[in-house]
């Protein structure tokens, strides 16, 4: 199925998991390795060392043999505060969030700013499936087969200038579609940001689907980030604006609680959240009687250290949490 076709399917149409797993085995056997080009790191504040990893090392991060989280849990246990703060509130998005047509503005420090609709944005890009862990700051995690395109491939089209040291992302904030906006739990719109080298890193995915289908609204349709080595809140949903900026941009959670949520938010068992430990996590296990599995140790950079640690060489991760 082409991405164009996938995007036309209603998000509620979820593949039967057993069928999906068989198809996935076949796809994995057929999949050609994507050509990867590592971009150089822009100097930033704090300075980023040049990343030296091979394409093979990067590709080794694209999948895992760990047990996948059940699709029904991936789509029913969510964080999407625009629809409320409860884990089941985001499922309301199915009824109210209109994801087509959808435009994304790209502006700031780039030679070719533009306004794009989804089809334009994805023109010429072949979506690929990647199985990533998503570790939330609250201590739970999931293993999800995402469908998407490398963020770098999209960003390069706008020709960021040397002043583009960071990339800022903004979610839609429409009270008619998002009932949770009446609560000032967050200073809306939801915003996130990455340093340019993080945004250009081959593991950073602009996700358009999961489990082989278009993204359901509650997971951030039609387009969201997935940054697998960072806490889940960096993976901003339903993006309407991307901006190249020179200064570290404000982000929703940092704005709210700067002592608790730093800009970088790399998964790090050695840096506790001020109110709880980050040393362990529980996978969403997915049975009716037992939602969480036993605790397992959390790994530095969520287990993606081989691919990303070089970006933070020389940085004090306790200070830049
Ligand atoms: N993006 C927006 N716009 N609003 C949100 O509330 N929650 C974040 C992130 N992206 C959030 C968001 C948090 S805290 C997490 S853990 C992940 O989305 C959860 O993604 P999932 O529901 O697809 O598992």
UniProtKB/TrEMBL annotation:
<feature type="binding site">
    <location>
        <position position="219"/>
    </location>
    <ligand>
        <name>Mo-molybdopterin</name>
    </ligand>
</feature>
<protein>
    <recommendedName>
        <fullName>Protein-methionine-sulfoxide reductase catalytic subunit MsrP</fullName>
        <ecNumber>1.8.5.-</ecNumber>
    </recommendedName>
</protein>
<keyword id="KW-0479">Metal-binding</keyword>
<comment type="similarity">
    <text>Belongs to the MsrP family.</text>
</comment>
<feature type="binding site">
    <location>
        <begin position="235"/>
        <end position="237"/>
    </location>
    <ligand>
        <name>Mo-molybdopterin</name>
    </ligand>
</feature>
<feature type="binding site">
    <location>
        <position position="136"/>
    </location>
    <ligand>
        <name>Mo-molybdopterin</name>
    </ligand>
</feature>
<dbReference type="InterPro" id="IPR000572">
    <property type="entry name" value="OxRdtase_Mopterin-bd_dom"/>
</dbReference>
<dbReference type="GO" id="GO:0046872">
    <property type="term" value="F:metal ion binding"/>
</dbReference>
<keyword id="KW-0732">Signal</keyword>
<dbReference type="GO" id="GO:0016672">
    <property type="term" value="F:oxidoreductase activity, acting on a sulfur group of donors, quinone or similar compound as acceptor"/>
</dbReference>
<feature type="binding site">
    <location>
        <position position="171"/>
    </location>
    <ligand>
        <name>Mo-molybdopterin</name>
    </ligand>
</feature>
<comment type="subunit">
    <text>Heterodimer of a catalytic subunit (MsrP) and a heme-binding subunit (MsrQ).</text>
</comment>
<feature type="domain" description="Oxidoreductase molybdopterin-binding">
    <location>
        <begin position="98"/>
        <end position="253"/>
    </location>
</feature>
<dbReference type="Pfam" id="PF00174">
    <property type="entry name" value="Oxidored_molyb"/>
</dbReference>
<keyword id="KW-0560">Oxidoreductase</keyword>
<dbReference type="GO" id="GO:0030091">
    <property type="term" value="P:protein repair"/>
</dbReference>
<feature type="binding site">
    <location>
        <position position="224"/>
    </location>
    <ligand>
        <name>Mo-molybdopterin</name>
    </ligand>
</feature>
<feature type="binding site">
    <location>
        <position position="78"/>
    </location>
    <ligand>
        <name>Mo-molybdopterin</name>
    </ligand>
</feature>
<dbReference type="GO" id="GO:0043546">
    <property type="term" value="F:molybdopterin cofactor binding"/>
</dbReference>
<keyword id="KW-0500">Molybdenum</keyword>
<comment type="function">
    <text>Part of the MsrPQ system that repairs oxidized periplasmic proteins containing methionine sulfoxide residues (Met-O), using respiratory chain electrons. Thus protects these proteins from oxidative-stress damage caused by reactive species of oxygen and chlorine generated by the host defense mechanisms. MsrPQ is essential for the maintenance of envelope integrity under bleach stress, rescuing a wide series of structurally unrelated periplasmic proteins from methionine oxidation.</text>
</comment>
<dbReference type="InterPro" id="IPR036374">
    <property type="entry name" value="OxRdtase_Mopterin-bd_sf"/>
</dbReference>
<dbReference type="InterPro" id="IPR022867">
    <property type="entry name" value="MsrP"/>
</dbReference>
<feature type="binding site">
    <location>
        <begin position="81"/>
        <end position="82"/>
    </location>
    <ligand>
        <name>Mo-molybdopterin</name>
    </ligand>
</feature>
